[in-house]
Write a structure and sequence with these properties.
Elements lengths: L3 E8 L2 H13 L5 E13 L4 E14 L3 H11 L8 E4 L5 H11 L5
Antiparallel strand pairs: 1-3, 1-4, 2-3
Length: 109
């Protein structure tokens, strides 16, 4: 079975998140993107704590596509240093996992 990753990233707004997600879908680097448009992010910025609203995007992909996905996400993302974290999926519904693998397979339409 293909090893699956859940990839997390954030955007300043939902429009940018959808634009990048669509590009990654068309390039078959991800099978699905779930946009969570109301997140409050607190992080260490330059000399202070930042407190901003962001859209979180959860992307599902195969481990073998990680390097290409990360590279392309950095190309498309408006942030200088976008969040790009991957977590291995320990288990998933067999039909969902088969679907994910099939839509990311070369030549799938």
């Amino acid at each position: 079975m293909t090893e699956v990753l859940m990839v997390f990233t954030t955007f300043a707004n939902e429009d940018d998140a959808a634009r990048v997600a669509r590009a990654l879908l068309l390039e078959r680097l991800i099978a699905c993107a779930s946009l969570l448009p109301v997140a409050r992010s607190l992080y260490l910025g330059k000399d202070r704590i930042e407190d901003v609203r962001e859209t979180v995007v959860l992307m599902k992909t195969r481990k073998q596509d990680w390097t290409a996905l990360m590279s392309r996400l950095h190309d498309l993302h408006p942030y200088d240093t976008p969040e790009c974290l991957a977590v291995r999926v320990a288990a998933g519904a067999p039909r969902y996992m088969a679907w994910l693998d099939s839509v990311l397979a070369p030549g799938s339409e």
